[in-house]
Amino acid sequence: MKSTIKLKQKTLITLGTLIIARLGIFIPIPGIDHNSFYSNMGQNGLVSFLNIFSGGGFSTIGIFALGIVPYINSSIIMQIITKIIPELENLQKEEGELGRQKITQITRSLTLIWAILQSTAIAFWIKPYVFNWNKYFIIDCLLTLTTGSIIIMWFSEIITEYGIGNGPSLLIFQNIVSGIPKVFMEYTTNIYNGKTTINIFFLLILFILILIVTILIQEGQRKITIISARQLGKIQELNPQSYIPLKLNQSGVMPLVFASAAMALPPYLLQLTSNNTIYQLCYLFFPNNYLYLPLYCFLIITFSYFYSSLILNPEDIAKNLKKMGSSIPSIRPGIDTVIYLKKILYKLTFLGSIFLFIIVLVPSIISIVMKTESFKGLGITSLLILVGVSIDTAKQIQTYIISQQYDNIIE
User: Fold this and answer.
1) What residues form the membrane-spanning segments (predicted)?
2) Is 159:14 a contact under the CB 8 Å cutoff?
3) In what helix (H) or strand (E) does residue 223 lie, and over which residues does it extend?
């Protein structure tokens, strides 16, 4: 009974926080011609990409327009500099809970700085759509958006600590889900304007297949069997439950996020310059040109390797195995284990990134064949996020229920 009550409390805290975070997006900043701004930003690729994470906040410019974006940027920066600066790496690994709290505090400070920078950039970006643009509006916009971003960061921490699931991930999940009805309505309208029921059924089957492949990629893993010191010489008695799980897509959705953001820049840069050379160079990387797909594939592979190196370090795994008195069968501890793990990781990362690129192509191919653009509204990046967050949240709920059952049995 106690576990059920606690689970209900966690669920209510999570849902209540998500609802408040969603409502704040629709509270507009005063002094902006929102109708004109919304109509002009509708076809902006970069804004459309940022709206995935802000739930349409960059199109409405509400008080929560920045959403969780500054916090995500700060978290990524912290992951990078932690690997670069030895003091921060030692703080994270050796200081335990106190070290993690210090890292969290630094991330919060970076979020504030990042929110101020983005708020200032937005204040100047929306100048053509402001009724009375002056220093007072800039200060008002900066304070409003920055405060909104810090509140969203606080909401994400509340969900992570007192609710269910990972706060930042659930906020992004909510923002993506909120845009699905609009995409579905537009796509249904386009279909019924000239498509048949057979085509609708065909697209539904394809969508289910994409979903299945996405789940397989998210959950696919290579199990590296390990053996303890007391089992040496008894290979036939290896425990199948003793293994190191190396995921096929170790870096998750981040390579797609980075690659999509980079590919959204050329169309945006064309709006900032009239130079003919820059225009021709940027135009080569538009979706309909031959350099678009090779560059997209290269970026996905590059970011996959980069982000995998941040998440998983073979040297750390080898050290931990040595401390536990365990090893990989037929592989010597130390440098040989590191080399072996690196080979496995490189192969898995390459395969995972190629699979990501292949499934990224499917919606575009369907859109071309069906002669509709609406299908692209719910891209593979969004689908991967939805699948990943759903699986992780479901696992956390399941783990929480099991742990509470054990507690009840002990009591």
Assistant:
1) 12-32, 52-73, 110-130, 136-155, 167-185, 197-217, 252-270, 290-312, 348-369, 375-394
2) yes
3) strand 221-225
Which of 54, 45, 6, 20 minimizes the C-alpha distance to 178?
54
The verdict on residue 330 lying in a domain is no
- Does 41 or 72 have the greater pLDDT score? 72
Looking at every residue in the chain, the average pLDDT score rounds to 76
Average pLDDT rounded to a whole number, residues 251-256: 74
* Residue 243, beta-bridge partner list: 225
pLDDT at residue 190, as a whole number: 55
Which residues on adjacent β-strands are paired with residue 246?
Answer: 222
Q: Is residue 216 part of a domain?
A: no
**How would you label 138-153 residue by residue, b for 16+ Cβ within 10 Å and e otherwise?**
beebbebbbebbbebb
| Pairwise CA distance, residues 161 & 168, whole Å | 12
Q: Within 13 Å and on the Cβ side, how many CA atoms surround 154? A: 9
Question: Vertex 154, ends 148 and 157: CA angle to 5°?
Answer: 145
If you search the block for the tokens 């797909």, which residue do you land on? 293
- 176 is in which domain, residue-wise? 1-190
- Measured between alpha carbons, how far is 60 from 358 in angstroms, rounded to an integer? 33
How many CB atoms neighbour CB 46 within 10 A? Answer: 19
Residue 324, phi then psi, degrees to nearest 5: -85, -5
Q: Are 344 and 224 in contact (CB under 8 A)?
A: yes
What percent of the chain is modeled with pLDDT above 70?
Answer: 73
Task: Tell me the pLDDT band of 151, cut-offs 50, 70 and 90.
Answer: very high
Who has greater pLDDT, 82 or 56?
82
Burial of residue 13 (number of CB atoms within 10 Å: 0-12, 13-18, 19+): middle
CA 221 to chain centre: 19
Total structural domains within the chain? 1
Digit-coded pLDDT (tens) for 180-193: 776 666 656 555 55
Report the range out of 118-127, 168-177, 340-349 with the highest average pLDDT.
Answer: 340-349
Report the CATH number that the domain containing residue 181 is assigned in CATH: 1.10.3370.10
Question: So what's the pLDDT on residue 237?
Answer: 52
Q: Check: CB of residue 223 under 8 Å from CB of residue 244.
A: yes
